[in-house]
Amino acid sequence: MEKQFRIKQITQFFVLVLFILFASRAVAQQSTVKGLVKDEAGIPVIGANVSVKGTTNGVVTDTNGRFILSNVKTGATIVFSYITYTTKEVVYKGQPTLIVTLTEDNKLLDEVVVIGYGQVRKGDATGALTSLKADDKIRGFAPNTQDLLVGKVAGVAITSEGGSPNGASFIRIRGGSSLTASNDPLIVVDGVFIDNQGLNGAGNILSTINPTDIESFTILKDASATAIYGSRASNGVILITTKKGSEGKVKITYDGNVSIGTPKKKIDVMTGDEFRVFLKDTYSDLSIYEQMAKKQGLVNTDWQDEIFRTTLNTEHNLSVYGTVGKLMPYRISFGYTNIDGILKTSKTERYTGSFSITPSLFDDHLKINLNGRGMYVKNRFADWGAIGAAIVMDPSQSVYDKDSPYGGYFTWRGDDGNVIQVATKNPLSMLEMTQDKSKVRNFIGNAQIDYKLHFFPDLRLNMNVGMDYSKGEGIKYISEFAPSDYMYGGYDSSWNQEIRNSSFDFYAQYTKDFNFLDSNFDLMGGYSWQHYWRAGDGIGHRITKFDVYGDPLLVTQSNYETEHYIVSFFGRLNYNVKDRYLMTFTLRNDGSSRFHKDNRWALFPSVALAWRISEESFIKDLGFINNLKLRLGWGVTGQQDINQGDYPYMATYLHTVGDQANYLRGYNNGVPVWVSLLRPEAFNPDLKWESTITYNVGVDYSLFNNRIDGTIDVYRRKTKDLINAETKTTAGTNFKEYVAANIGNLENTGFEFAINGRPIVSRNFTWEVGGNVAYNKNKITRLSVGDDKDTKSVNGMTVHMVGHAANMYYVYEQIYDDKGKPIEGLYKDQNNDGQINEQDLRPYKKSAPDFTLGLNTRLNWKAWDLSIAGHGSFGTYNYNAIAANHAGLSPTTIYASESLSNRVTSAFDTNFQIAQPLSDYYVQNASFFRIDNIVLGWSFKNSKRIPFNGRIYGSVQNPFVFTKYKGVDPEVFGGYDGTLYPRPMTFLLGVNLNF
Fold first, then answer.
1. Minimal CA–CA distance to 188: which of 120, 237, 236, 225?
2. Helix count (H) and strand count (E) of the chain?
3. 18: nearest Cα among 26, 30, 6
4. What is the 3-state secondary structure (H, E, C) of 784-813?
5. pLDDT tens-digit readout, 677-721
6. Rounded to an integer, what distance in angstroms lies between the CA atom of residue 188 and that of residue 501?
7. Which residues pair with 107 in a beta bridge?
8. Other C-beta atoms within 10 Å of 456: how many?
């Protein structure tokens, strides 16, 4: 009995203990913690994340920095985090209130950015530069490298050559610094200089680089940042750094997408029915109408629908990266892109591959960087002339004619049955009966060795050897039965090109910290050697036309080999006092073989000063300023890409082609022997560098716990010794009437403003927004040997004139009636001489924009992300050549040479009988804002069911354009809107997988 009582007592005791344990556990689970999160200055941190580690239990701080976190058990770890602050963990021991101080994370300022011949902490940069990370989550449809930069950087304007899959792109940094020389920026990939003279058959030089291989961009904009590149840097510099391997086990990444491209907008023209009604209502009382009626067809053909199409495109990228042992990070990638253009027959198919090996040896004293990127692309180019033909081709005619000997296509024929050569050719035949193809191989590689001396670790030696090699070939074949070339006998041509560019760079860098003034000294000096070589040949002849020897009639022939060298010595000094006062001085001495030995060398200095005002106590006390830096920069850069070949200072001679300019040498068995002549080219031994002086004042800022950051820059650029390719020579002094010479000055002034913000940062939801705006104005200040203010240089529709912007339109000032309608042929007499002639043409508007704008936003909610990006251009004007050239409504323009021509509907806005192409009526406001892409994605993590991480996303490119421009697309490089390849709207579905 006593034993049972003891057992009962023991049982009750254990029950009581278990009850207490469970009760305490229940109480612990229901504990509530209150607290405050502040920064080092005591200011509450709003929106900080407070969560229990390893759980989903979390809250964010309110507007006073306070929080209430429930269900916290004793011993749990509470994590406090906020963007731009170092994450802090606190073990909960039952205290009812927690006061946590977060310290600022200086990663924003400590971020290392690539600059010319080295790297620098972002906080220590003294020049105007922008660093941009390549982000796959906002990429959308971006088959080419430059697509990643559109609208992202203030002062950088990128305009593609329409929607062609193999078209060129034009990049301008702070406008242009030259009139006839190149305005393209210098592009450097992993230390290798890319030749911007172009690559035949590739369409776009940046297509040689797979966008998914890019890690980051650094854009150098002012002379203090670019002068280290001297003669190559007047138009800015774009430094591209590709992805490298990383430590750890092997990782595999796949990025693939499928997209559909569709035409977005067509040019408004008359339909077949409308055209027939127009002819009858307008010309039925004229004798010519009977001939028109006989020629007109009975169908409705939309010629634009016939030449454009909806396309299906694919892109696949695979990368493998990791580390061999512990010393050799590596990365290997492969890519395949297949894009069909919306203009029939246009197509590009690209294969890319890359490797990177970056071992670090001897306790990181020796670092080796081996990179290689290969590209093989097959292109088929469409005849853009088909776009113009589709506008004016008679819509009442059928596409095909079963009785036509010209490929079965309807063709305008005269009474003799032959092709009317001056008549509009069948647009579809222009595409399908022409084969214009190319194959291009390219390899860019470099080997970089960086050695920090063991016995003198303050000194580093860096050597970089690079190569850019390309080989291309192509053919163009136009059938002898093609309506466009039937009268000429067809056309058959081929070409080959080989490019070999080599570079060698070596520099030594000495870095030392001093106790004196708590300063840092960084001195760098080096040598650079660059060799650019290219050779090629081409031949083109008729298929059914023959010369006197019975050979196919020769049309074109070329055979060339050319090269130039650039040799440079350069140096840079950085001096930093108290991490507060910064100074950078650079000097580069460049020699180019493109100039005479007396003008071959030029010196390019620069200096930049920076003051990190935020490090001063009177700014630190404000609390809300995290970074505030004032920058002042001055420098001189040069220009040797003068678009005059490699030997503009010496006499050269070219062979004539064909039988139009030959010399009769004699006869061979009665057959005349003709010898081609040598044609002398113009040259100028006094030609020298263009040089550009830049002044820049800038501010870098970061506010409110780094929630807002950005830059402000104001600049002025003066280019002197402008190379004018159309300088008139004195009779008898040269081989041509015009020669390239250093005559002229140009000024650019502008400002740039960029801002990035994070309005909402919480545990499950973040919102980021960024924008930039840039203003640029240029003016020609001199254009002649003397100071002649009336000097002008006319090039087609544009003119250079002193006191005006470059490339202004040169047109008549249109007179309007009281209803605001232009009066045909009536223009203002500018010089009041009683007549209208070329003396009354005036400079009016320009294609270069006054303002450029970029906007982007990104929202993240749990596993979902949404990004929208767009860019705009304001103050830009296009010459609407499509409307101007097809405005005539007289019977002799509608029906000429036994053929009918359609008209754009805008012709009825003016009712001009004869086209007035020089009227300023056709210079139209082309300001616009374009939504470039909208991307929606969903990310997932690996699990038992899915053994990998990934993201599925969809995007639409070019969905909206806001503009008042009357043409198809306001974004036209150079402003001449003639036969622009329309930009498609593209819908994309893609996936990223990480194994």
1. 237
2. 12, 55
3. 26
4. CCCCCCCCEEEECCEEEECCCCCCEEEEEC
5. 777 777 888 888 889 999 999 999 999 888 899 999 999 999 998
6. 13
7. none
8. 9
